[in-house]
Design a protein that fits this description.
This protein is mainly alpha-helical and 250 residues long. It has helices at residues 2-7, 14-27, 39-58, 75-99, 104-121, 138-148, 166-169, 179-187, 204-213, 232-235, and strands at 128-133, 153-157. It has a two-stranded parallel ribbon. Helix 2 packs across helix 3 and helix 5 (104-121) runs parallel beside helix 6 (138-148). The chain is globular and about 65 Å long.
Length: 250
């Protein structure tokens, strides 16, 4: 295990990666299907590339399949995008090899996988805690499942809505703030009922009120029978309305 750790290259810093991407884009924009770009535009594009790489590593997606993910009617437009993505599919791996580095998220996932294997093969005799979990990707899912099954393993989740009924819970879409939490629990083979509260809510009325505000649109018919007159004052305690002149002030 020590040898495996020693063979994992160090990670490139976020700033170095960002500036290298920016330099590549500014140097030959036409090579990547772009028109003339200034430094500020190149920096924004570089940030997008960095986010894209990190998402792909977190979701364990392969860059080799990029050419196959767009329907035929958009193929010509996608070719322009593929030209731009050559930065990360062709040139970036070579740059990293020359420097003896790897992307930070890739390294993190390698370390998570290694730690999960170590704990699975040799369960530790001390308490292992994973806390503040709000979302999960494959590498994190693996280690969380291992911790969940350890004799002294504990998982602490943040912000699970336990007020919303199961039918509406099943209707959550990707735009809902609880969607990732629901999907995370599914991946860990857990129900909301399996997660105990470690403390009492400070303001149960407000939690219920927020649940109703964020209720999936398909289930808002339940608002007709909602009776919140008794709890509305507690729900709105110390909340204030701020009227703004414009978007900037807001």
């Amino acid at each position: 295990q020590t040898e495996i750790l020693e063979n994992i290259p160090p990670s490139i810093s976020d700033f170095e990666r960002l500036f290298l991407f920016t330099k590549l884009i500014v140097s030959k924009p036409e090579q990547y299907g772009l028109k003339q770009v200034n430094l500020a535009q190149a920096l924004v594009l570089a940030q997008d590339l960095a986010k894209f790489i990190d998402v792909c590593y977190n979701e364990q997606l392969s860059f080799a399949k990029l050419t196959d993910i767009v329907p035929g009617q958009y193929a010509s437009h996608w070719q322009d995008t593929l030209a731009f993505l050559k930065i990360i599919t062709e040139y970036w791996p070579e740059i990293l090899r020359e420097r003896g580095l790897i992307d930070k998220v890739k390294r993190k996932n390698m370390l998570l996988g290694l730690q999960a294997d170590i704990w699975q093969q040799n369960p530790p005799h001390k308490k292992i805690v994973a806390a503040g979990i709000t979302a999960v990707f494959p590498g994190m899912q693996k280690i969380l499942n291992v911790i969940k099954n350890l004799p002294l393993g504990e998982l602490y989740f943040y912000g699970i809505d336990k007020n919303l009924e199961n039918e509406a819970w099943g209707l959550l879409d990707e735009s809902h703030p609880q969607y990732e939490i629901r999907e995370m629990l599914k991946l860990l083979d857990l129900q909301r009922e399996d997660v105990a509260n470690i403390d009492f809510p400070l303001n149960p009325a407000r939690e219920a009120f927020v649940t109703e505000i964020m209720r999936p649109a398909e289930s808002t018919g339940k608002w007709r029978s909602l009776n919140i007159q008794d709890s509305i004052s507690s729900a709105l305690q110390n909340l204030h309305t701020v009227k703004c002149k414009d978007l900037r002030e807001e």
